[in-house]
Amino acid sequence: MEISPKGNTHFFSNNTILPVDRSSFKSESSASKENQSCCGGIKIFLGALSFVYFAKALSGSYLKSTITQIERRFDIPSSLVGVIDGSFEIGNLLIIILVSYFGAKLHRPRIIGAGCLIMSAGTFLIAMPQFFMGRYRYERFSSTINSTVSISPCLQDKSQAPLSALEKSQAKINAGCEKEAGSSMWIYVLLGNLLRGIGETPIQPLGITYIDDYAVEENAALYIGCVQTVAIIGPIFGFLLGSLCAKLYVDIGFVDLDSVTISPKDVQWVGAWWLGYLIAGVISLLASIPFWFLPKHLPKPESRKDSSTSSEHSKFIIEENKDQRTSYQQQAKLAEMAKFLPSLKNLFGNPVYILYLCASIIQFNSLIGMVTYKPKYIEQQYGQTSSKTNFVIGLINIPAVALGIFSGGLIMKKFRIGVFGAAKLSLGSSFFGYLLLLSLIAMGCENSDVAGLTVSYHGTKPMTDYEQALFSECNSGCSCSKNDWDPICGENGVTYVSACLAGCQASNGSGKNTVFFNCSCVGTFESSQSSSAVVGPCQKGNECPKMFLYFLVISVITSYTLSVGGTPGYILLLRCIKPHLKSFALGIYTLAIRVLAGIPAPVYFGVAIDTTCLQWGSKRCGGRGACRLYDSGALRYVYLGLTLVLGTVSIFFSVAVLWVLRKRSSPQDETLSANGERGACGTKSRKDNFVNSDQLIQSTYWPEKETRL
């Protein structure tokens, strides 16, 4: 909406205490320049903010895509990976209250620029351990590495074996441990993610309110919708980047790739996880540049100059002469900052705000936990590689989320849905989304046949003591370790933890082409016709690819359904608070989500997933490493069951929101808004708490939703 020069002149003549003769000197050309500056400035800010949203969404989603890579590279359990993932939210926690409440009174563009620099530094720090912790070492029998020496995997006499094929000598173990004594490098990943959280904090509350303050009112929703649309592209590129890097070996450029004896299908495979963080860090660094050249304030459009509630800075409109402006503005700022506790009390005294906050906290617990470990679930449940998993999530799931968010906003606008309708739409979306999620429990794969873990060496179910079951009569004469994980696939279709535990007497070839012969345990299996085996685990059952296809279809529909309710829920949140508390309420909302959902959810989901592990890896210096094999059935019930339980609880809170709105609404409390819709907000009085819909942003924003599904 263009503002005429005459309108601009009229505003300044009426709203500024200046001598009458001075207003006559304001020419039409100067007013036109001011109008152009306003439009140009907000569009430049819009472009810069869109790029920042893209950058933060890309780095956040890339972290999700590298969860399993980090777990294997640093040899840590899922629970510890959950702590690393939650450190981002801890970074937000440290400063979000200050940024949300006081940041609106400072130079917002430069604060956002500084945040981008911190976010970039944190992203670079995450990648740094790769350059200091040495080359990645994985477990492999020596004959698969050196073809010039033929060694029997089943060592009848320990003197036959070179040192690397047996338990290493104490001297070598001590030497290795001295090297790795300072190699708890995952701490740097945690600290880097913490810095990312600190840097990302001002982007959302300050960026959105800056647009709301200086954009033409009817264009604000469009601008914020553009920001969110661009932000959705970030996770798509993040997961696609994760897919590309997962194909590349972790030490690419540092080792001869022909000497690598594992493939991306192996559970010990680690991709070039660090490469994506370097790329994401550069993008965040570039995103910070424009904000250092943007002004603290932009000229207000004419439609906003007469509004006392549309801008958080409107509380500082100066109606005194030039000499009195500085002292009056300072007093106004101090008075506003002193209202922190009353503002907090006002928010928590709003029942709709509190109930919706509780529903969101519990729902985000389920969504954050689900999305954090979704790549791991697909890899372990359906036997897919990390690269394919990330590709599928980035190319299929994320666009479904984007379409869902857009559809929610479109439905709100087309049918002119009010507050009560928004609450019903949000509830319906959650109900049907979790109902679809329930069907995924039936779409799983059976455990792979692993001798001594999921089946016995004779083809029957094993005893409950899995560790003792690894040893059998067929390998009793071998000197094997139960901690090694070097799987081979027998001709009978059964995976064996190692060639030694399979009782193999001879081998031929090298690297990935190694073939083992005379494997006594393979020959004793009920269905075996041969006693040979090859390097690597056997593939999942024939039904698993079909189940994976069904999973993808239902997963996409579920993502879309849950996302449809995001925009109505967010509009419900905004319409039940006072306009001048928008930034503060959004900050409190985001803080609660991150403290009570973002931090704990990955941790306790990881702890629950760890309970389904059948075989743990071992570190070089002793101690438990990363999990090598999960119980598929138990993993499915724990992962999906925990998500469904939390989702069900959140639905009950959403029903309570609907009940309060219905109870509080009455003919006296309903007000016809400018676009003809009706809305009612469950608050104590219409005068203090009801917000007309034309004073709020009709945004399609759902905090962190673009990186959560």
From TrEMBL:
A biological-process GO annotation: sodium-independent organic anion transport
Presence of the UniProt keyword Electron transport in the record: no
Keyword Calcium in record: no
GO molecular function, one term: sodium-independent organic anion transmembrane transporter activity
SUPFAM superfamilies cross-referenced by the UniProt entry: Kazal-type serine protease inhibitors, MFS general substrate transporter
Residue ranges of domain Major facilitator superfamily (MFS) profile in the record: 45-665
Localisation: Cell membrane
UniProt-listed InterPro entries: Kazal_dom (IPR002350), Kazal_dom_sf (IPR036058), MFS_dom (IPR020846), MFS_trans_sf (IPR036259), OATP (IPR004156)
Topology with respect to the bilayer: Multi-pass membrane protein
Domain (Kazal-like) ranges: 468-523
Gene3D superfamilies, sorted: 3.30.60.30, MFS general substrate transporter like domains
Entry keywords, A to Z: Cell membrane, Disulfide bond, Glycoprotein, Ion transport, Lipid transport, Membrane, Transmembrane, Transmembrane helix, Transport
Pfam families per UniProt: Kazal_2 (PF07648), OATP (PF03137)
GO cellular component: basolateral plasma membrane
Reaction(s) catalysed (UniProt annotation): 3,3',5'-triiodo-L-thyronine(out) = 3,3',5'-triiodo-L-thyronine(in); L-thyroxine(out) = L-thyroxine(in); L-thyroxine sulfate(out) = L-thyroxine sulfate(in)
Similarity remark: Belongs to the organo anion transporter (TC 2.A.60) family.
Protein name: Solute carrier organic anion transporter family member
Native organism: Edolisoma coerulescens
Lineage: Eukaryota, Metazoa, Chordata, Craniata, Vertebrata
